[in-house]
Amino acid sequence: MLSDHYNIEFNKKVTVSGSMYREGDFLLCHDDASDDRAIAFILYLTEEPWLKTWGGSLDLFQTIDSEVTHRKKSIYPRFNSLVCFKVDPNVTYHQVSEITSNVERLSINGWFHSDMFKHEPKLIAEPKVSLAKHMKFYSIGAHSYLTEFINHNFFDQKLMSNVQQEFIN
Ligand SMILES: O=C(O)CCC(=O)C(=O)O
Ligand SMILES: [Fe+2]
């Protein structure tokens, strides 16, 4: 059925995992493209009704020339509902927004695979600006702004360079 709908011939491989997102959990924007993943699926096993104020939406993004332009759609989990989409590299970008309440977002999710798909591994580009360079743009204005919500201990120059070094490593 799914095969007819998408006009894709699946191979025998299906990847399945169970996911549980709890308060503070989220999944950053990505496109799922890897190896022979063809169709992504998510079966939601959340309590009903799921309130929008709890976060946890599956957000789908619009892209133009592989660049994300805006959020196209937000799908909130519904018990026993199945969401599927074709894995399209640099196109089917999506994320799970942060869970903002003390609830569990349970799902069974994975991919149907196909020999018709062979996604190239992505090269992660080196950051164009080194972290050390950012330090030069750290202005007095930025400092007074940041002190509103960052622990003052983190403004210690020595600690700052240690943290930066950790990230570089
Ligand atoms: O749980 C969802 O709604 C999406 C999960 C997802 O995108 C993934 O696991 O790759
Ligand atoms: Fe995904």
What features would you describe in this structure?
The structure is a single chain. This protein is of the alpha+beta class. The protein folds into two domains: 1-113, q2cbj1_9rhob like domain (Jelly Rolls, Sandwich); 132-168, no CATH class. Helices cover 18% and strands 31% of the residues. It contains four helices and eight strands, in the order αββββββββααα. The strands form two sheets. It has a four-stranded antiparallel beta sheet, with no helix packed on it. Strands 2-7-4-5 form a four-stranded antiparallel beta sheet, with no helix packed on it. Strand 4 and strand 5 form a beta hairpin. The longest helix is centred in the C-terminal third of the chain and has 12 residues, at 157-168. It is globular. The model has no long low-confidence stretch (mean pLDDT 88). The site of fe (ii) ion (FE2) has 4 residues, from loops.
CATH-defined architecture of the largest domain:
Sandwich
- The mean pLDDT is 88
Class by SSE composition: alpha+beta
User: In sequence order, what are the helices and strands, one letter per element?
Assistant: HEEEEEEEEHHH
Q: Measure the end-to-end span.
A: 48 Å
Classified in CATH, the superfamily of the largest domain is: q2cbj1_9rhob like domain
Task: Please outline the major beta sheet.
Answer: 4 strands, antiparallel
Task: Tell me the number of structural domains.
Answer: 2
| Strand runs, count | 8
From the alpha carbons, calculate the radius of gyration and give it in angstroms. Answer: 20 Å
Q: Which bin fits the share of residues in helices?
A: 10-25%
Ligands in the structure?
Answer: 2-oxoglutaric acid, fe (ii) ion
Low-confidence stretches: none
Domain Fe2OG dioxygenase: 12-114
Organism: Diaphorina citri (Asian citrus psyllid)
Pfam families: 2OG-FeII_Oxy_4 (PF13661)
InterPro entries: Oxoglu/Fe-dep_dioxygenase_dom, TPA1/OFD1_N, uS12_prolyl_hydroxylase
